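notes to self, project folder thing:

trying the whole complex as one job this time. last attempt i did each chain seperately and stitching them together was a nightmare. two parts in total, labels are on each line so i dont mix them up again. if this works i'll redo the older ones the same way
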Amino acid sequence: MTTLLFIVLALVGLPLFIVLGAAALTATHEAQLDPALLMVEFARLAASPNLVAIPLFVLAGAVLGQGGAPKRLVRFFNALLGWMPAGIAWVAVLTCMVFTAFSGASGVTILALGGLLYPMLKHEDYPDKFALGLITSGGSMGLLLPPSLAVLLYGVVAQVNIGDLFVAGLLPTALLFVMVGAYALLRGARGAPRHHFRLRELTLAARASWTDLLLPVGVIGGLAGGFLTVAELAACTALYALLLETLIHREINLKQLVWVVHEAAVLVGSLFIILGLSLGLTNLLIDAQVPMRLLDWVQAKVTSPLEFLMWMNLALLAVGCMMDIFSAIVIVTPLLLPLATHFGIHPVHLGIVILANLEIGYLTPPVGINLFLASQRFKKPVFAVFRATLPFLVVLLVWLLLLTYWPGVSLWGLG
Amino acid sequence: MSVLRACRWLEQALTRVELGAALLAFAGMLALSVADIVGRNLFHATLPGGDLVLRQLVLWVALPGAALAVAAQRHLHLDPANLAARPAWQKLTAIPFNLAAAFVCALLTQAAWVYWQDEWQYQSAEAVWLAWLGLILPIAFGLLALHFLLRAVLAMQEPDKAA
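result (full assembly):
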């Protein structure tokens, strides 16, 4: 009965951390435990070396979002890929992917890049519906690329090596890039004009944006080469982004910098308070043997790993419809991890499948945040945006099936 | 000064302090990380306790950030029916939701205070500064409770703006 009340309170819009806090306090009361135990778990946020990376990467993303990086990246990718058939569509997907990885998929991609890419697609005679769908769905497509916040969070919650997760996400992202690009080639770019490759424009664009392009290269190189820890890499990225936007390009002044810190702190705060309280709640659930009972129940109903993965996908798609990605990772991962281990699913593969599911959740009503952001950004009704994203949703679902039943795509780098 | 103005003034003052704390914590994280990288690679030595402080600073960014998120009304919530977009619903729920949230945060403040007192009591003399840094837990939950309370009072005073 109490559980039902908390679920209802969460569904009617009470902040999630309040619902989790109230549930955890009630659980400690019922188990006759000291509520201070919740704070023991909360303080563990200061025990994980990898967690240091999250605020710093968020800061880097906020700085880049506020600065001129989106414009410079669009110009460069346009000069590099704009000559190809459906060139501007490839440009849109690639720019969105790179930017989402840095912005933490907090919706900044649609807000920062939408205003640049949407008119470009329309100018090239792409159908309005296609352009709208591409930008809206592109807002979450780089979620598996380093240094995505969602990957870091899954790594921390599941205690999986973050470097392995980032390497595992590279091929699935490349696959998605090809699939969406191919769809654009077949459907979107029918009337779009072709452009000539212009070396001079590429040189000029590269000169303007090479400092931005060094960032993803540095992050991937640093992780793959093992020169720096994830936290050190995050600090270098944040410092580099700050230097770039305040001193080199001078896009951010001191007043704007305070605003950027405010935005980064709000995002980190709203995320970490849920993480801290859910650590306490998860511990109480483990004490009450909830995951074990869930495992028994699933074992009785599900017989094979393939069947488990199918049910897991359906459940996660439903979760993605109801919950934002960060809350979902924190709440769902501790429940799914023991089940996946039982069925012999690698935690890295599990992570990629969970994140791919939740990536799709950005586009599914009623809580598909990208739908609302795009609706606001492009002044279109939410239903029209949803209809425009449907073909991309189908592409994403096919991609999800490939990732789910072909573990090699995720586990290729693990040897 | 009217209650309304006093509440607004207090909320703004709290927001400035919290933003200042987050700003300093971010700066500290960056400085410590750089000192750690440089020290380890060039001098084969790191700042004593630097790693511990760095990890504590995560809480000093996150918890003031959580308090800022209350003032900015940006905490994560589910709301699949998009009730938040309906002014009538917002008007109806602003006071009870904020009061309930303040109550939960007050209980969490009490839990955090008990936890901090235990930490303080059992911390060794050399590491007592770590317990001081841990004081952010009860302070921040207290601030969260205060923010929600202020939001509830503001909603009472100007119900139309709460919607």
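what i see at first glance: The mean pLDDT of chain B is 90.
need to look closer tmrw
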